[in-house]
């Protein structure tokens, strides 16, 4: 066999070995990339954390994929199009798992409580809201349940002792002030605050921020971290098959890093209150 032939064979072998090495490297890089699905401000947070020194220390290669609605995002997570999602409260997560016919999700850990607030341009205290007043509340099942719990916590109504994450107005057991409830799309809350036909509006923190409001300063009543608001704590979630994925668990370490928390606190003016709790914290939540 001539030298030329040996040279050709050697060149082919180099190309083959190089190709296999490149393929393996690409596969490894792909495997180490975590795709996080998120919406609005949470997407902004994770884009920042993905570029942080803490992410580098933890060897986390994060890609953020933004969605416009939670249901689509949860389905994408269950189907494996997204590895982990960061946007939802535990009650929203429960509602999805209860209703879905697709794959189930599991919680990885807690992130924050973003307080739901009661706002009014007419009254400075919930005690000032008069009998017969109209209160606007989100019509989405999980959000409506959360809003009714807040109204009950404020002493404005009473709800059934077995009130759950998907319950609504039918579970209001006492309405002593004869309030009228106007069911709305959450995104319209900021505009309705100045509607003459509405006396008070329940607005989520993301919507209130978009309207230039700060729940800690502008709401006349808002959620605090306690036993009544456990279901409203936000979580990281993934498909059930990933429940023991240790790399995904590192995302909690990244989120709870001091520099990460300083960024979140400064950017959102303290309205995303960090919650560091074990998953057992949700035991018994309905």
The amount of helix comes to 25-40%
Outline type: globular
What's the Cα radius of gyration?
A: 24 Å
Strand percentage, roughly? 15-25%
Distance between the termini: 78 Å
Structural class: alpha/beta
Count of helix runs: 11
Strand order of the largest sheet: 2-1-3-12-4-13
Low-confidence stretches: 6-30
Query: Could you tell me the mean pLDDT?
Result: 89
Give the SSE string.
HEHHEHEHEEEHEEEHEHHEEHHE
How would you characterize the largest beta sheet? 6 strands, mixed
Give a count of the beta strands, DSSP E runs of length 2 or more: 13
What are its keywords?
single chain, 286 residues, alpha/beta
Report on the structure:
This is MetQ/NlpA family ABC transporter substrate-binding protein. Belongs to the NlpA lipoprotein family. Its main location: membrane. Keywords: Lipoprotein, Membrane, Palmitate, Signal. It comes from Leuconostoc falkenbergense. The protein is of the alpha/beta class. Helices cover 39% and strands 21% of the residues. The protein contains 11 helices and 13 strands. It has helices at 3-31, 40-50, 53-57, 70-78, 90-99, 141-153, 189-192, 205-210, 215-218, 246-256, 258-267, and strands spanning 33-38, 61-66, 84-89, 105-113, 117-119, 134-138, 158-159, 172-174, 180-184, 200-203, 221-222, 233-239, 273-274. The strands form 3 sheets. The protein has a 6-stranded mixed sheet, with helices on both faces. A 5-stranded mixed sheet has the order 9-6-10-5-11. Strands 7-8 form a two-stranded antiparallel ribbon. The longest helix is centred in the N-terminal third of the chain and has 29 residues, at 3-31. The chain is globular. Residues 6-30 have low confidence and may be disordered.
């Amino acid at each position: 066999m001539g030298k030329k032939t040996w040279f050709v064979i050697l060149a082919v072998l180099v190309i083959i070995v190089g190709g296999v090495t490149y393929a393996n490297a690409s596969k490894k890089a792909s495997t180490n990339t975590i795709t996080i699905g998120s919406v609005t401000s949470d997407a902004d947070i994770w884009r920042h954390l993905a570029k942080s020194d803490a992410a580098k220390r933890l060897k986390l290669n994060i890609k953020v994929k933004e969605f416009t609605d939670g249901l689509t995002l949860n389905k994408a997570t269950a189907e494996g199009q997204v590895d982990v999602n960061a946007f939802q409260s535990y009650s929203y997560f429960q509602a999805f798992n209860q209703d879905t016919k697709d794959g189930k999700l599991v919680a990885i850990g807690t992130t924050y409580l973003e307080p739901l607030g009661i706002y009014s341009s007419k009254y400075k205290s919930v005690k000032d809201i008069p009998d017969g007043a109209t209160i606007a509340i989100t019509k989405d099942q999980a959000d409506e349940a959360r809003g009714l719990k807040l109204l009950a916590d404020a002493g404005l109504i009473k709800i059934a002792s077995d009130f759950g994450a998907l319950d609504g107005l039918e579970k209001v057991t006492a309405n002593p002030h004869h309030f009228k409830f106007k069911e709305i799309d959450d995104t319209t809350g900021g505009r309705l605050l100045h509607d003459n036909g509405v006396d008070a509006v329940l607005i989520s923190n993301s919507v209130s921020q978009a309207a230039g409001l700060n729940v800690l300063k502008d709401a006349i009543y808002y959620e605090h971290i306690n036993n009544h608001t456990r279901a409203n704590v936000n979580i990281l979630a993934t498909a059930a098959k990933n429940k023991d994925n240790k790399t995904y668990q590192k995302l909690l370490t990244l989120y709870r890093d001091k520099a990460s928390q300083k960024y979140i606190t400064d950017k959102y003016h303290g309205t995303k209150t960090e919650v560091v709790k074990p998953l057992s914290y949700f035991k018994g939540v309905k």
